[in-house]
Design brief:
binds magnesium ion, Beta-Lactamase, 11 helices, binds adenosine-5'-triphosphate, alpha+beta, 3 domains, Helix Hairpins, Heat Shock Protein 90, five-stranded mixed sheet
Length: 471
């Protein structure tokens, strides 16, 4: 399967859609969990920070009143180490905002705070400092009976919160990847399950399309897909039955047609032979009755009639069993010219003008030259015979789309409608001495070449007979 076919396949599209839905849902859920978790952790840290600030501020009252700076320092030190290191710095200020003790790590120097900020803090103030990742908390140090004696400032680091969140994030990423992957797998599996019957059906349709009538598909799946498979099998069976029936009917028809044609030919043949036989019989009977030998004139008549019978039988045989001949590359123009030369005396006798319009650029065709010459001769003779009292014979050749055509135009009386669809029938003739086999033989030969014949006629104007041959 090529990449393009895979990308276009319904199975791929369904699994990609499922994977996208799973992925977007997972990412949204993970983001919501993370946001909620951050919120809870921040609140917890803020609560813990303010609680610590309150406790430390109580502990600072005495050392501050007695100005025991070392005690203040120790208190800060111990709280910085004790509380899992969440206290990043500690500062104590006097009532006027003058710094008394400042304890901090060199790496995290606390930013300067305004005196107003400290002195204004009647209660706990928590400032978020995202740049330093700390909560900056200020709280007044209140001594019983004396009121506010100073200010405490604590820095609560968010380092652990960020680390915890990073851990949660990592786990969520992992979980999301697992879910998305499972989603893709589930999507592929589902797509295959849903699509498989459709693919099987598709193959079945292709098989029937390529001519394998009656091909059936395996019925799998459920619901509409199953119904579709059953209906397809039914349809395929019925199509085969119908085509078989049509074929049988066609064969029957051909057989009947053949029998009919044979009957027609035999009747025609019998009729054609009966006439000369009758004249021969009559002559011989008269001679017998009168008891004298046949005279020279009688013998001449008998000879003529026998020749006629011979011609009829020969032509019938040519029609019924056309000689199997080899097809070779043939120039139709050459054949037309040969026939024109052959029939020139007949044309002159009947005062017929000749117009030749041959296209010498036409391609050669695969043909049996003798057969094709006979076809052209039969048509040209018909045209000449149609112009007993003169006229114009035009012979043209040309090339069309995959065909070469030769046309014989005459200015004879034309063919009446009632005769038009019979002129190709064997033994159909309107001529005294015609056999009616000329066009029947011509038609047979042209058909053997994979070509066709067309007749265009108008009463008192003339007839055009065209031969079309494939190149
Ligand atoms: N160019 C034409 N003009 C008028 N009628 C024609 C022409 N060609 C054929 N026909 C008619 O078609 C009939 C059948 O022609 P076809 O060539 O098969 O037999 P035929 O010419 O009568 O006899 P045969 O060719 O065997 O001597 C002719 O008798 C004639 O009536
Ligand atoms: Mg003829």
């Amino acid at each position: 399967m090529t990449i393009k076919r895979l990308l276009n396949s319904i199975a791929f599209r369904i699994s990609i859609s499922i994977a996208l839905v799973v992925a977007s849902t997972t990412v949204t859920v993970a983001w919501l969990i993370l946001r909620e978790e951050r919120h809870v952790l921040e609140l917890e840290l803020q609560k813990k920070g303010t609680y610590l600030a309150e406790i430390i501020s109580h502990q600072m009252v005495e050392p501050l009143l007695y100005e025991e700076r070392y005690a203040i320092y120790s208190l800060f030190q111990s709280s910085m180490t004790a509380e899992k290191g969440i206290v990043a710095f500690g500062e104590v200020y006097g009532l006027k905002g003058e710094p008394i003790v400042k304890v901090y790590d060199e790496k995290l120097k606390p930013p300067h705070v305004d005196k107003a900020v400290l002195s204004g803090s009647q209660s706990i103030i928590l400032r978020d400092n995202p740049a330093l990742q700390i909560y900056d908390i200020s709280v007044p140090i209140v001594a019983k009976g004396l009121g506010t004696v100073g200010y405490l400032r604590l820095g609560i680091t968010k380092k652990f919160l960020i680390e915890t969140l990073a851990g949660i994030k990592k786990k969520l990423y992992l979980l999301s990847s697992v879910i998305v992957l499972s989603g893709i797998m589930a999507g592929l599996w589902m797509a295959r399950k849903i699509i498989r019957p459709v693919l099987i059906l598709n193959q079945g349709v292709k098989r029937v399309g390529s001519g394998e009538l009656g091909a059936e598909v395996e019925v799998i799946g459920e619901g509409e897909i199953k119904e579709l498979s059953v209906a397809f099998n039914e349809m395929s069976r019925k199509v085969k039955e119908s085509v078989d029936a049509i074929k049988a009917a066609q064969e029957n028809l051909i057989r009947t047609e053949k029998l009919y044609a044979l009957g027609e030919f035999s009747a025609g043949l019998a009729h054609e032979i009966k006439n000369p036989l009758t004249s021969i019989k009559m002559l011989m009977q008269t001679a017998k009755e009168k008891n004298h030998a046949l005279c020279a004139a009688d013998i001449e008549i008998i000879e003529g009639e026998i020749n006629r019978i011979d011609r009829i039988v020969k032509e019938f045989l040519a029609f019924a069993r056309p000689a199997k001949a080899e097809f070779i590359s043939t120039d139709i123009n050459e054949l037309l010219k040969e026939v024109i030369t052959l029939s020139r005396p007949n044309m002159e006798q009947s005062n017929i003008n000749l117009i030749e319009e041959l296209d010498f650029s036409i391609p050669k065709v695969k043909a049996h030259p003798d057969g094709m010459r006979q076809v052209i001769l039969n048509i040209v003779l018909n045209a000449i015979q149609a112009m007993e009292r003169g006229g114009t014979l035009k012979v043209t050749s040309s090339a069309g789309d995959g065909t070469v055509s030769a046309c014989i135009h005459d200015t004879g009386p034309g063919i009446p409608d009632e005769n038009l669809n019979r002129i190709f029938d064997p033994f159909f003739t309107t001529k005294e001495d015609g056999t009616g086999m000329g066009l029947a033989i011509a038609y047979n030969i042209v058909r053997e070449h994979g070509g066709s014949m067309e007749v265009d006629t108008a009463i008192n104007r003339g007839t055009i007979v065209s031969i079309l041959l494939p190149t």
